[in-house]
Amino acid sequence: MPLPDAVPKPPGSNIYRQLSDKKLGELTNQEYEVVYNNIFLNDTSEDELRRLALIGLARQSLGGSSSGPISGKGDVIIYTQASSSVGATVRPPDGEIWQIIGVSVTNSVSPVGSSSYSLYLSSKDMVTSEPQKPDAANDLYFSSTSSGSTNIQWEILIEDHNTQPFIVSESMMLRMYSDFSGAGTGNVVNWKVAYQVLR
Asked: Is the pLDDT of residue 51 over 70?
């Protein structure tokens, strides 16, 4: 049912004209942004803003959650780092938002000394300028620890002041890096990341 006394009427709506060939479940964030970036915030756009809000609510009901993690949507993923020349990156698919709730490290071979294990937050631009591995000069340093242990848990990795979960997306990633300085021969670092999907 159209909005009462709406101007323009639904057939004349710029929003519906632009999205008429799209299905709700297939509408991408980029396509949605193109529509709302062209609407002015004034009284003549009020009906178009209502239509836009309606589409936004409908999109949210399909896959998003405004009250926390989506039930049944989360996992523990293992990211493998085989050398000091390449780090590991947690980057959700486009359109998804993840809440990281834990990270741990397991070395496949017992260390012969201490290695450094670091966490960074990086934007797309940061990854583009330094694609192989993060560093404090380029990326946002989050935390680091040195250890000679085979297994390193979340609390040691993130330091006491960083214990809150944090959010990552396709454009803001978690990057993990070990320098392998105390690694045993043939060692592989397995970064285990637990997350819940927020959207």
From this structure: yes
The pLDDT value given to residue 169: 93
Residues 195, 166, 198, 79: is their CA dihedral positive or negative?
negative
Query: How do the domains of the chain map onto residue ranges?
Result: 10-63, 74-197
SS3 content of the chain, % helix, strand, coil (to 5): 30, 30, 45
Average per-residue pLDDT in the chain? 83
Least confident of 33-42, 71-80, 117-126: 33-42
In the CATH hierarchy, which fold is given to the domain comprising 74-197?
Jelly Rolls (2.60.120)
